[in-house]
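User: Batch of two.

Assistant: Item 1 of 2:
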Amino acid sequence: MLSRRTILGSVAVLGVALATGVAAYAHGGRGPGMMKRMVSAMIDEALEPAQVTPEQRTKIYAVRDRVFAAMEAQRQTRGQHMQQALALFEADTPRPGTARGLRRPA
């Protein structure tokens, strides 16, 4: 059985790995491929001492893949969203409700 300290340490390392990956992805880095490899390596390093089961590893990788997919979807629409926000900002008289259209669902 894993100790609470080991589990919390592994979760902390996973959090740092994801935060590092998100930061690298947001700043462009050397591309999404490099960021994915870096985050995947950090996750693998965190999972080794935690001695996770294959089922747990599969679930963790599924979460990692969902995060990457969400980041990619955001990256593809970022430019269009910024153009809409800029047009709203530059308008002489903004139309009511236009800003609400720029909000993303939580």
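Item 2 of 2:
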Amino acid sequence: MKLDMAEKLVDKEKIWFPWYADFRGRLYAEVSDLTPQGNDASKALLRFAHGKPLGTEGLWWLYVRAAKRLRQRWAAGGRQAGAG
């Protein structure tokens, strides 16, 4: 489903996502297939129209996120296939 939607949108210069806020003020995309809040596959199929360099601080936060993900995988049953 995600790939089908991505194929339909591949030639578009930009796409927009409709958003809504719940009672706590959290934002959610109204579409469920291809969204920046989706799983890793959904996020990997998207590219920002106005990308920015990561910078030193951004790189640090990327490392923090990667370390947390690895810790979660290892805590879920040791080293898994494909985890380094």
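The longest helix spans residues 55-75.
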